[in-house]
Amino acid sequence: MVDAKILVVDDNKSVLSALEILLQFEYKSVQTIFNPNQISSFPDLQDIDIVLLDMNFSAGVNTGNEGLYWLNEIKKRSPNTSVIMMTAYGAVDLAVRALKQGASDFVLKPWNNERLMTTVKSAYELRKSKQEIHDLKKKENNLKQVINEGRNYIIGQSKALTSVLNLVAKVAKTDVNVLITGENGTGKELIARELHRLSNRKNEVFIGVDMGSIAENLFESELFGHTKGSFTDAKEDRAGKFEAAHQGSLFLDEIGNLSLQMQAKLLSSIQNKSVVRVGSNKPVNVDIRLICATNCNLEQMVADGLFREDLLYRINTIHIEVPPLRERNEDILVLADFFLKKFAHKYDKSGLRINQSAQEKLMEYPWPGNVRELQHTMERAVILSDGSVLKPSDFLLHAKPMQSMDGELMTLNEMEQQMINRALEQNDGNYSAAAEQLGISRQTLYNKLKKKNN
Ligand SMILES: Nc1ncnc2c1ncn2[C@@H]1O[C@H](COP(=O)(O)OP(=O)(O)OP(=O)(O)O)[C@@H](O)[C@H]1O
């Protein structure tokens, strides 16, 4: 027994009872209406899967207009219900009109039982797939909302930040590729999200990918997807990030961390506006707005043969440089205040304020970790604070030279060099193993060594 609800509408009582008996053999719920006017007040019409609707009701009238009228009424109230028109032989033109207006099919009277049951079955399949699409769309919209939700406030009033935001507003509505550069923690991802929020794609997804964290052997599958069985762990077909971002924005963070081989694959997808899943040879078209970010100097990397020039020109139609926090001092206290309020609220410590000398300390500090470091500093200070006033001692700032293992003062750079050397020694000079131990990608390690050796 199929768990479907069918409604039959006909002004001929014998037609109604004949269809009721026939359909009840296969379908759980069959209801009948003698007078079509009852359609308007029929309860829960959206729950009806199929309506079998006569085309002519008033005796002697067979223009079919009544049937078309009621078809429209049903479709208005329940667009996904399948409507099968019942029409007399010779009125096929009318049935075609009904199909154009949204009927799923028609049956000729007198009907052939077997054929009618087949028509009802197909109409039910159609209804089910329409319902599935409807449910999926609803889920998709909910997901998009969850993914895009949480307005990210970009705080700051410096000239430098304002001109970045003006540029963002100018290019957001276009579909050009944007490259965002700047030191770690300056807010590149925030800017990328703002570009999406102000774009015509704002109701579609924003998909971010950290290129530095993708293992070389998974790069293609992560970005372009794979087909079932294309490698050992490919248990089913899977779309990659490009396909997932279709019609939305794709944010490729740490683009400077890609090997030349990965760069070539990425370039080809960007150029062709299509991807080929691993294990397939069929290109899938993708419509994305590409936003890339890096803290590397890509021009220098091109000169050093580490980054493809053609890829650079593809991704940097518009280049946005986010200045480090030390070059926009006016933003420091504004941001500090914003984070103070945010964390005071989060940790239930309202009424906190930063005293004058602590403000001076924050202003003097060079913030090598930029806004992210300021955010963490504020969070820590709020958590550890006892009174209602934050003093200089509440802020632990590390930019001063630190001590090496043997007691000598070291800069951050020297410490980094020492850690890299140690990791390389411990891993017999193996770059991949040393990078893994340090928690960075092989490419980042390579870039750091290259920079230090220059
Ligand atoms: N102007 C700003 N206003 C408010 N919050 C900011 C601002 N800039 C950065 N942030 C916050 O600082 C943190 C770091 O920002 P984000 O991740 O965008 O930086 P990033 O440049 O992409 O960093 P990375 O280079 O390390 O990927 C985030 O929590 C972000 O919300």
TrEMBL record:
InterPro entries associated with the record: AAA+_ATPase, AAA_lid_NorR, CheY-like_superfamily, Homeodomain-like_sf, HTH_Fis, P-loop_NTPase, Sig_transdc_resp-reg_receiver, Sigma_54_int
Record domain Response regulatory: where: 5-124
Positions bearing 4-aspartylphosphate: D54
Keyword ATP-binding part of the UniProt annotation: yes
Domain (Sigma-54 factor interaction): residue spans on this chain: 154-383
SMART domains linked: AAA, REC
Keyword set, alphabetical order: ATP-binding, Nucleotide-binding, Phosphoprotein, Transcription, Transcription regulation
Keyword Nucleotide-binding: yes
Protein name: Sigma-54-dependent Fis family transcriptional regulator
Species for this entry: Flagellimonas profundi
